[in-house]
Fold this sequence. Notes:
single chain, about 350 residues, alpha/beta, 2 domains, 14 helices, binds 4'-deoxy-4'-aminopyridoxal-5'-phosphate, pyridoxal phosphate, Aminotransferase_I/II_large, histidine biosynthesis, EC 2.6.1.9, aminotransferase
Amino acid sequence: MTSDAQALVQQLIRPEIQALSAYHVPPAAGMIKLDAMENPFHLPEKLRDGVAEIAHGVALNRYPDASAAQLKVALRDAMKIPADSGVMLGNGSDELIQILAMAIARPGATILAIEPGFVMYRMIATFCGLRYVGVPLKEDLSLDVEATLAAIEREKPSLVFVAYPNNPTGNLFGADDIAAIIRATPGIVVVDEAYTPFAAGKSFMPRLAEFPNLVVMRTLSKLGLAALRLGYMAGAQALINELEKLRLPYNINSLTQAIATLVLKSSSALEAQAEIIVGERTRVFHELAGLAGVTVFRSQANFLLLRVPDARASFNALKDRQILVKCLHGAHPLLDNCLRVTIGTPAENDAFLNVLSEIL
Ligand code: PMP
């Protein structure tokens, strides 16, 4: 049986899929979890009461509202989405990246992204049989504008991803540079604003009308609602209308719709938490900068990238002390001996800093 199945795999599954490793999520039970850019704080008590009421009243026997109409109204309002732009919802922004890739998939079509960047851009290109071109950042992790514009000219990508701020580097590229990329690209440019809540309001959302090929993508995951899996993107209505055809029916479940609508109506509660996270980011940055052997990079996101003498050893030693961070050594040449740590609660950050200073 096993060898039959193996033969089937060889025969049917595309070689590039066989060569992939599945997206790895390490077990985290009992750990201080600083590896996935989640908001470390629970929802405020009052909102949790509202969630309990929703859970009690929701009609689980019925399919969700396929157009998620109420949620879209709340989202447009809370996130200041221009009234004449289209909006589309995904089961996390991961799903939206996949829908965008499916929409442009044809032989020879190309996705271009900045590297190191969010790994799903490359993975989803592979899922959809697309060419993928990564343009490296400069040694100091700043955007290589000339190289990016040259690659766009050469590769004529159908789809470009720029995360603003970038993951895993945490920095925010120049708005003028991104605007130049959008203008130079013959295809769609997705400005992925997953970390915008921590970037002092820097966003391309108000500039949608300027660029017909711009899509602004966001998520509620980093803001405190990772469990709900809700991503959204805004862009020209005509483009969103086409992308909507690729969305599976009912991709946003009823609990997510109702809970996200409730929370977005009180979004100041999440913004207040984001403010605490930004304050902690500054504190942790300065503490890390004072540790011998550590280089820490400036961040506009809810995490910090740091270089240590031996990232694998530090990762393992932290893990032995129940602290989970992300080891990026080996992920990209620019990330040698780098770790990425999500900003946690003040107590979690202290635990991380104490253990790191002990083990270095
Ligand atoms: N974009 C970027 C830049 C990210 O870092 C992430 C999550 N790590 C995502 C998108 C996906 O977020 P989600 O699917 O949770 O919305």
